[in-house]
Amino acid sequence: MAETTEPLLSITGLRSAYGPIEVLHGIDLTVREGEIVSLVGANGAGKTTLMRCISGVQPIKAGAIRLAGEDIARRPDHARASLGIAHSPEGRQIFGDLSVSENLALGGYHRRDALGPDMEEVYRLFPILRDKSALPAGGLSGGQQQMLAIGRAIMGRPRLLLLDEPSMGLAPVLVDQVFAVVKSLRDRGVTLLMVEQNAYAALSIADRGYVMEQGEITLSGLASELIADPRIREAYLGA
Amino acid sequence: MSELLQFLISGITVGAIYAAIALGFTLIYNASGVVNFAQGEFVVIGGMTAAALIGAGVPVWIAAPLAVIAGMLVGVLLYRLAIRPAGQAPLVSLIIITIGASIFLRGAMQAVFDKQIHRYDGFSGDAPLRVGGATILPQSLWIIGGSVAVFAFLAWFLNRTRAGRGIRATASNRMAAALVGINTGRAMNLSFALSAAIGALAGVLATPVTFTSYDVGVLMALKGFSATMLGGVGSPLGALAGGLLIGLIEALTAGYISSDYKDASAFIVILLVLFLRPQGLFGARIMERV
Ligand SMILES: Nc1ncnc2c1ncn2[C@@H]1O[C@H](COP(=O)(O)OP(=O)(O)OP(=O)(O)O)[C@@H](O)[C@H]1O
Ligand SMILES: [Mg+2]
């Protein structure tokens, strides 16, 4: 497939470390406008670290992170939200002592326009959040907190939405709901990069996928090809 | 009857000072989770700076704001030079840093100012006003009004302004705050500046009634901290109520029993309340699932 336009996200040679221990050893990855891209890999491969580098809360040692062509690797973490990146992090990381509605409103912190319509949209996607809107978010169940974390990221009206294990802790019926939300977001023009434990589900809705092992990308391609790839089936799809 | 009224007036006056100090604690706690034990020193910086300026002939309406600004600048320095460099150090280390800073500031004040006790005239004179059968100093009205104004400002600021919401979010979850676009360093800086300004304002208002010297900060911090614990850490309403309550208990004990017991009775009440309601009178019980 020929590249006609600049990819929305383009990462080249990205290295990152925790103290002296390097955990990303030169990652190359692109996400084009309007795509859903899934990142799969075993525990400890570095998926979360990569997501955190993109949203800026994890420092990088080398490499470039380009958003629509502009190198954003040196931009501070708090500037990334207004550049159009929203991140629903691993482990939810909600504001536990603030109310559910305050959590959602904070998702739109960098925005200057009215948040009402998007708040309404999040409540429509996750009705339980409306019922609990005035309660402290720390009192929600794990699955409800996960919905809140996704809803908060949606409130940022991102161009690029990073979802780190969005189905974590959700009952199967809710997992389906979250994947339906992901698809509907893409239909509205949001570009998604997603890490999922459930590699099969993640690859089924994705356009393309990357496989990460021990801090390196070992395989990439169309999601349909990856699902069919025997190496993937064996390692991640349990087939 | 008029005796009771007199005790109540003095209790509310002293309580309002404690409340203002407690509000300063509340703000920094809200931003960082840190209990700033240097908070009492800002009260002294406010009072001593105002006293020095007024002593040098500067009119009070210029000296008072300058003293508040001086406190605010020291607050920013405290954050930049002592708290921020400690980075992601555990909370306990940060709290110990503030204790160190308070010892340092006390020494610095002794050097910059002196070891004398200072006061200046009340803003509206020192002639007592008659209320019922009791009297109240005009400066008491300044103190009470100042504390209520600080409380109203903080309640509005933390809940209704963008910067205030940023401060609360930063305290609640620093990484998530950065992810949604909050400049967490700026939020911390702002909270230290405001909190120091609040402490200095308390000192400026209180000095005509309570007097000041370089070493009263420890006691002030202790009283303000007790008020914070009693009211519920992190709650502006709790800080106000806790401060007033401790002031009243002290004044009534001193009036009806003996001033020897006033500190003890306040602490007994605090222990009782915390025993029955560990989160304090107005503190939210935070239940966070992990
Ligand atoms: N805060 C940290 N400090 C030190 N090392 C860390 C830290 N976080 C992660 N690591 C290490 O970095 C490597 C990559 O971790 P990361 O969390 O990015 O993996 P992951 O692919 O997201 O794993 P999982 O599927 O379990 O979420 C691991 O070896 C991990 O031990
Ligand atoms: Mg992970």
Describe the structure.
The complex is a heterodimer of chains A (239) and B (290). Chain A is α/β, with parallel strands linked by helices and 239 residues long. Chain A is built from ten helices and ten strands. Chain A has a domain at 9-84 and 158-235: Rossmann fold (3-Layer(aba) Sandwich). In chain A, helix 7 links the parallel strand 7 (160-164) and strand 8. The longest helix of chain A is centred in the last third of the chain and has 16 residues, at 172-187. Chain A is globular, with a radius of gyration of 17 Å. Chain B is 73% helix and 2% strand. Chain B is built from eleven helices and two strands. In chain B, strands 1-2 form a two-stranded antiparallel sheet. In chain B, helix 1 crosses helix 9 (217-231), helix 2 packs across helix 9 and helix 6 (162-172) crosses helix 8 (184-210). The longest helix of chain B has 31 residues, at 2-32. The chains are: A alpha/beta (239), B mainly alpha (290). The interface between A and B is medium-sized, with 35 and 22 residues. Residues 47-48, 90, 164 of chain A line the site of magnesium ion.
Sum this structure up briefly.
The complex is a heterodimer of chains A (239) and B (290). Chain A is of the alpha/beta class and 239 residues long.
**CATH class value of the domain at 9-84 and 158-235 in chain A:** Alpha Beta
Q: Tell the overall outline of chain B.
A: globular
Note the quaternary state here: heterodimer
What is the strand tally of chain B? 2
Mean pLDDT of chain B: 91
Class of chain B, according to the CATH hierarchy?
Mainly Alpha
In angstroms, what separates the terminal alpha carbons of chain B?
Answer: 55 Å
In angstroms, what is the radius of gyration of chain A?
Answer: 17 Å
Helix/strand layout:
The complex is a heterodimer of chains A (about 240) and B (about 290).
Chain A: E1 9-18, E2 21-31, E3 36-41, H1 47-55, E4 62-67, E5 70-71, H2 77-83, E6 85-88, H3 100-107, H4 116-125, H5 127-131, H6 142-155, E7 160-164, H7 172-187, E8 191-195, H8 199-205, E9 208-213, E10 216-222, H9 223-228, H10 230-235
Parallel strand pairs in A: 3-8, 3-9, 6-7, 7-8
Antiparallel strand pairs in A: 1-2, 1-4, 4-5, 9-10
Helix pairs in contact in A: 3-6, 4-6
Chain B: H1 2-32, H2 39-55, H3 60-83, H4 91-112, E1 129-131, E2 134-136, H5 138-160, H6 162-172, H7 174-179, H8 184-210, H9 217-231, H10 236-256, H11 262-276
Antiparallel strand pairs in B: 1-2
Helix pairs in contact in B: 1-5, 1-6, 1-8, 1-9, 1-10, 2-3, 2-4, 2-8, 2-9, 3-8, 5-6, 5-8, 6-8, 9-10, 9-11, 10-11
Bound molecules: adenosine-5'-triphosphate and magnesium ion.
